[in-house]
Structures are given as structure tokens and as C-alpha cells.
Amino acid sequence: MQTRIIMLADFDYFFAQCEELRNPTIKGKPVVVGVYSGRTEESGAVSTSNYIARKYGVKSGLPLFLAKKKLEGLDPVFFHVDHEYYDQISDLIMAIFRTYATAIEQVSVDEAYLDVTEQVQGSFEKAHEYALKIKADVKSQVGISFTIGVGSNKIIAKIACDSQKPDGLTIVKPEEAQSFLAPLAVDRLLGVGKKTTARMEEMGIKTIGDLAKYDCQCLIEIFGKVLGIYFHNTANAIDNEPVQEQGEAESISKIGTLKADSHDLDYIAQKTDELTDIVFKEVTEKGYGFKTVSIYVVNVNLTSKSRSITLEQPAKDKETIRRNVRLLFEKYLAESELEIRRVGVKVATFSKEEPKQKSLTSFFSS
Ligand code: DCP
Ligand code: CA
Ligand code: CA
């Protein structure tokens, strides 16, 4: 396979930057965007803050009353989250990204992978110029700054992006990838949460380099086949996941609330099996095959996440959905310590020969 050139773009202090954009006079002040629970005027938590507020320890998740305290006397400005507005800004930027890449994969409101291999003719030198061009274009058209990580796969691009923010640009060439990853703590890898970090530390694994050298067979014995191989590969900078346009295919999904908040795979699987039954029924009625299976998670703190697997071949059977949903949850639970409140199952249909259907359930309507 030709060396790919993948970028991850992550918008800087996104919600707060959006507020600065429409309120230019607040620039230079600490800016905090909060989720207000409504219980009292002050109750709620920080969604995000600008880098000025962060200097005073005001970060995502901090209770708002503490944020007020830390910023006392500094003329801070507080906003209520306005997702609709942030989505609009995000859509504008994603549309610009599309003009610069063969494929883009939006992973959240403020993050997208871009496959620019063709555009830069496989050259990392050209990728540097190209990234600066994209940043300048978005800055002038939309007014938002962001950070780019560049690498030969999604994992390297992601870690490169995280390594220098805000307004950063970090390029990791394939020959540098292993030495770039090696000194980093294992918890920088997606899928390595607190429990896994502790377990790995007992095994003498602290850095990604330690993990890369660890016997793959032993990892499989300890963490199971899926995670063991995943850990081995990512630590060695191996990742062949394509940059995949999301939402291109029609999708069928179902969301439900767990009877009790849980972090237990078997308990969660009982619920997702029920949801799978419903989704599968609809898939069969439509006569579609599907190519991706996704899960959606709402944690107890109301943050939400989704994860997908792309199948090699389109499938039509229920067991494939169940099995992949379970794998996705297994990986997700290893990665997040939070208990889960709501779960969703989605398949994206592979409906090329079929007429386009209009009103298939979207993930966000339950
Ligand atoms: N967000 C949230 N609660 C969190 C984390 C994030 O509501 N615990 C929201 C607000 C952020 C947006 O998601 O603006 C994007 O999250 P990021 O983690 O990318 O954080 P920021 O964009 O705010 O900051 P950074 O400059 O570190 O990327
Ligand atoms: Ca961000
Ligand atoms: Ca982000």
C-alpha cells in the first residue's frame, strides 16, 4: 500500500472560540462556556474554556461555582452552551475541509480526519505547506483556529495533534513514528483507560515503547484477542483504518436507556441485544445489507460518544451486528471509566442498488 498522508484537525477551545467569534469584544478575557443544570442559577459544569481561563485552572468538567471563584476579579465572561450555533460553525469548516481532501471523516463536532495523500502526492514536505494553507483558508473564511496533526495513519495523526495545541501543526513522518510514540505514556493511546494503565504498569509497561516491545501473544492472553492485537499494532504505529466519510450511507438506529447505570459488558449487552433485534427487523424489511456497525453511548455525566466498525464485506445477518456491537463496547469500556446511562446501536446500510429512502431513523432521535 502507498504511504498515506492523514491529517487530524481539532478546533481549538471550540465552544469558547465560537463565542469569541460572535462577541469580538470579549477577546483577551477569560471565557467559560457552561452547561447549566438549572437547579440553581450557578449549578452546572464547565463545558470548555479559552486558554486564558485554563491558566487559572478552569477546565472542562469543573463545577461552575468553582470556575467563578478561580476567575474572581479577572473580568471573566460566562456563556450557556449553544450547540446549534457551534454545529453551524462546524458545518462551515467541514465543508471547507471537503474541498481539500479525498475523504474526510468527522469524528465529533470539532474534529475530522482528512486523507490528503493524493493532494500532496504522498509528500510530507508538501503536507506541511498544505496544512498551513488549510488553516489560513478556514481562518479567513470562518475565523476559527485549529490544530493539525499529520501522520501516515489515523492514530499517529491523532497523537501528533494532541501533542501541541492551540494553533499547532505537528508532522510525524513514517520513519519517525515509532520513536515519536515510544516515550509517551500508554494512556495516550485510545482504548487505554485507568484500569488498563494500572494493569500494564503491573506488567512493567509504562510507555508506548514498552508496549510495542511486549510479546503480542502475552498481550492476547491478558487482554483478549481483539484488544491484545489492537494494543500491539497501535503501539507499533500500525493502523490501516481508512478515513471514512460518515453519514454517506443511510442508517438505521435505535437508542434506549439502561434500567440502571452500568459499566458491565454483559449487562449492557442485554440492552443492546434488544436494540439490535429492533434495528435488524428494520434492516430485513428494507432488504438492505450493511457495511458499518456503530454504537452510541451516553455516559452518566451526559457526555456522549460513538464508535464504528467497518466490515470487509456487506452483511445481512443479526449475529454480525451483535458480535460487532459487543466488540465495540468491550473496547469502549476499556477506554472509559464512566458508567453508561443510554446506549444505541446503528447500522449504516449499503444500499447502492436501492432507491434512496428519506426518513430513516437518525441516531439522535430515540
Ligand atoms: N466538551 C464538553 N465537555 C467535555 C469536553 C468537551 O462539553 N468534557 C465540548 C466543549 C469543547 C468541545 O466539546 O469545546 C470539543 O472538545 P475538545 O476536547 O476538543 O476541547 P476544546 O476544543 O474545548 O479544547 P482544545 O483546544 O483542548 O481542543
Ligand atoms: Ca478541540
Ligand atoms: Ca476535540
What integer is the average pLDDT?
91
Distinct ligands: 2'-deoxycytidine-5'-triphosphate, calcium ion
Percentage of residues assigned to helices: 25-40%
Tell me the structural class: alpha+beta
- Could you describe the largest sheet, including whether it forms a barrel? 5 strands, mixed
Summarize the structure.
The protein is α+β, with helices and mostly antiparallel strands and 366 residues long. The protein contains 13 helices and twelve strands.
Describe this structure in words.
- The structure is a single chain.
- The chain is an alpha+beta fold and 366 residues long.
- It has 13 helices and twelve strands.
- The protein has a five-stranded mixed β-sheet with strand order 5-6-1-7-8. A four-stranded antiparallel β-sheet has the order 9-12-10-11. It has a three-stranded mixed β-sheet with strand order 3-2-4, with helices on both faces.
- Helix 6 links the parallel strand 7 and strand 8.
- The longest helix has 22 residues.
- The two termini are 41 Å apart.
- The C terminus is likely disordered.
- The structure holds 2'-deoxycytidine-5'-triphosphate (DCP) and calcium ion (CA) (2 copies).
- The site of 2'-deoxycytidine-5'-triphosphate (DCP) has 14 residues, from strand 1, helix 1 and strand 3.
